[in-house]
Amino acid sequence: MTDRAVHIPFAEMDPTMRSLLTYENNGAMDVACPWAGLVDIVRDTPVVRWDMGVGFFSMADVVAVGNHPAVVSANPVTHETMGMGSREPLIPLHLDGDAHRHYRKLIDPLLAPRQVALYEEGFRRLADELIDGFIADGEVDLQTRYAIPLPATMFMQIFGAPMEDLQFFIEMKDNILKAEGLTLEEREIEGRLSGDRLRVRLREILAERRAAGTHQDDLITKFMTWELDGHRFSDDDIVNVMHLFVIAGLDTVTSSIGCLVGWLATHPVHRQQLFDDPALIPHAVEELMRYQSPVNVGGPRWATEDFEVNGVSVKQGDMLLLGWWTANLDPAVFTDPLTVDFTREANRHAAYAAGRHRCLGSHLARLELRVAIEQFHRRVTDYSLAPGADPQYKWEGVRAPATLPIVFSARQ
């Protein structure tokens, strides 16, 4: 059988493809509208083989690879993980097989729809408190005054870490994920140094909680009291769970709020749709997450054996990258993928990934994104980018505007 993968030497790759496959900081993904190039990739080169591995960009391929039993999330030889600031596999992201299933069985109920619904009232109240701080001004950098503190504060409350640790956590998270101006190798070194500092503090928090002897209604308490087959988890295991939660909980929703509201701020017709019919906001969140896909790429993954998937030959040891954003713009799945349609019916997107390692916090993220937009729209009658504003969308694996200056009219 002819292999579907197209071999493209790295030096000959389009800058957008290089960014997707290697997180290269070449500016291709920093622009506000890189969509046309992404559709070209999924249409013309849905599978690419290059010096380091194989990249999959269509929806059918990323779902098939994400679910394949011979695909794992930590290098099976070196046990190396990348991009999260850890020298050890994070739980459950970097586990597979029975170990992954056991941890997902414990963690999934903590973030199930019924559980996250209990957080809505508090999240809505927090959103209003933040809006109170700038509503009289008529202008705001929404990224720094709303998109960052809203989900971050809520995360700390749910997680159970001291609120005074928030800025330290954000600093370490940014060092791990967003070390600008560094090569991939330099970023990995900087990320692991910051990850080490983060893990020292996480161990201190565990020790403080044990010394206090108190049990609170938060995630850390649940992690500390977990049992599986009658055995408690070690502090090493708990820290590997906490590390993952801090990195994911303090970045992806913040980035998504910035991307979604930033898009609405430049599209008045769609914005007015939501003012006219607020019931469309949940659908708008899904459609804009499909279209924006702030978490662009999944991986790396590794093949533990030779196999074939959808006509592509994968070799044992191959590094695999999964293009969530390109999959969400796949014309074979989405009619007019470059058209944003808040009434789109078939919208099974992959913005929260696909396969065994689908995002743990997708239900919480959906709630937070919906409420963030609902509360802002309840407090203003319209908004747009501030005159002369040109938000720069930074991309280091997760895409977000660095700042989001907007002007608005407060609702009387």
UniProtKB/TrEMBL annotation:
<comment type="similarity">
    <text>Belongs to the cytochrome P450 family.</text>
</comment>
<dbReference type="InterPro" id="IPR001128">
    <property type="entry name" value="Cyt_P450"/>
</dbReference>
<dbReference type="Pfam" id="PF00067">
    <property type="entry name" value="p450"/>
</dbReference>
<dbReference type="GO" id="GO:0016705">
    <property type="term" value="F:oxidoreductase activity, acting on paired donors, with incorporation or reduction of molecular oxygen"/>
</dbReference>
<protein>
    <submittedName>
        <fullName>Unannotated protein</fullName>
    </submittedName>
</protein>
<dbReference type="GO" id="GO:0020037">
    <property type="term" value="F:heme binding"/>
</dbReference>
<dbReference type="GO" id="GO:0005506">
    <property type="term" value="F:iron ion binding"/>
</dbReference>
<dbReference type="InterPro" id="IPR036396">
    <property type="entry name" value="Cyt_P450_sf"/>
</dbReference>
<dbReference type="GO" id="GO:0004497">
    <property type="term" value="F:monooxygenase activity"/>
</dbReference>
